[in-house]
Amino acid sequence: MKSGKSWLKARISNLKFEKPESERERLDRIKAEVLAADAEAPSGKTSRRSFLSKLGIGATLLAIAGQVYAHLRSLKPNVLYEEPRRFKVGAPDQFGEGGKFLEDKRLFVFRQGKTFYAISASCTHLGCTVKMQKLNQPKRVKARGREFDEQYEFHCPCHGSKYYGDGTNYAGPAPRPLDYFKLEVAPDDGQLVVDMSQSVGQDFRLTV
Fold this sequence. Notes:
Layout: H1 2-14, H2 23-40, H3 48-75, E1 86-90, E2 98-102, E3 107-112, E4 115-120, E5 131-143, E6 146-155, E7 162-163, E8 169-171, E9 180-185, E10 192-200, E11 206-207
Antiparallel strand pairs: 1-10, 2-3, 3-4, 4-9, 4-11, 5-6, 6-7, 7-8, 9-10
């Protein structure tokens, strides 16, 4: 029994515990092998071993670069910065009678006397910006179960969708009317505030 234990201790003492090779150590070892292979190869020629070693270096460098990129990418927050959906568009007296197009917001703001409303300029088909077309003379139309005289219409230049002056679609591929957005008055300075995150009905009007 004693001789068996002695044999086991001898076997354990002869074992070598090697530390796992790091990426840097592996790269240094491969470089050394490449230099040795190049030294043994005939002048002007590259041995097969040298080629394979260089290929291994390239793969190692790519792996290290991928790890570095992944680390740096993790430090950058994955956040999309969007423009606020609620914003001021100006004081009521800055808007004349009729419609005013706000190009940067893709929005129409209309004034009729003391009432205001806002209509989206984004076509409900594929999102192209519609154009407001003033009519040469008022046209009597019927939409949403009522008749009214319109002074203008909205036409999409992309695919031919057309909307009445109240935003109701009547021609082309547009599947529904233009969106109306909530309007309110800012309590601090009295400017008109549009909230594009809140759609309202076509009958919505803000009286100032």
